[in-house]
Design goal:
The chain has helices at residues 2-16, 25-30, 102-106, 114-119, 142-151, and strands at 34-40, 47-52, 59-61, 69-70, 73-74, 78-79, 85-86, 95-101, 121-123, 127-135, 159-160. By secondary structure, it is α+β, with helices and mostly antiparallel strands. A five-stranded antiparallel beta sheet has the order 6-7-1-10-11, covered by helices on one side. Strands 3-2-8-9 form a four-stranded antiparallel beta sheet. The longest helix has 15 residues, at 2-16. The two termini are 15 Å apart. Residues 1-30 have low confidence and may be disordered.
């Protein structure tokens, strides 16, 4: 089961981080957006995430400035109860946050070099916890439903990714 979650997370990252490879509409429809809830060591909610290699020595995924939007608005995470956030960008245990806000990043005319981006990382290990709650569309009122799960202490019933 953890292998399946890992594969789904990789597929989601490929979709979210805007891979150059073209996918058919059917392939894109098969990827269900996951409800990923996380807590960080500090408030990084306004900062852009990037994907690091397993050894955290290099950036292997980053958004284009136009990719920091979701449904036409900045893809900031949604604040939830008890300091948790609902991901709107593609967070994984190998994600890190840049010291640049979504707003600042969206205004860039070109993406900085990988080395420049890497030098902007605030914390290579920012997460206390990450949970995958499955298909995001199954929640009728996302924030209300997720807050109930958090308040009841029921996150542990879901897949803990970190």
């Amino acid at each position: 089961m953890n292998n399946t979650i890992g594969i789904l997370m990789v597929m989601l990252l490929q979709f979210v981080y805007g891979c150059k490879a073209k996918q058919s509409n059917a392939a894109q429809a098969a990827i269900k957006e996951q409800a990923v809830v996380y807590k960080t060591k500090a408030d990084y909610s306004k900062l852009v995430p990037v994907l690091l290699s397993a050894d955290k020595k290099e950036i292997v995924g980053y958004p284009a400035p136009k990719d920091v939007f979701r449904n036409g608005v900045l893809a900031l995470p949604t604040a939830l109860a008890k300091g948790y956030f609902l991901d709107n960008r593609g967070i994984t245990p190998n994600s890190a946050f840049l010291n640049i806000t979504y707003d600042e990043y969206a205004k860039l005319t070109a993406v900085p070099t990988l080395q420049e981006l890497y030098n902007k990382i605030t914390d290579k290990n920012p997460f206390e916890e990450i949970y995958n709650l499955g298909d995001r569309s199954r929640f009728k009122n996302e924030v209300k439903d997720l807050n109930k799960i958090i308040e009841k202490g029921d996150l542990k019933k879901f897949t803990r990714v970190k």
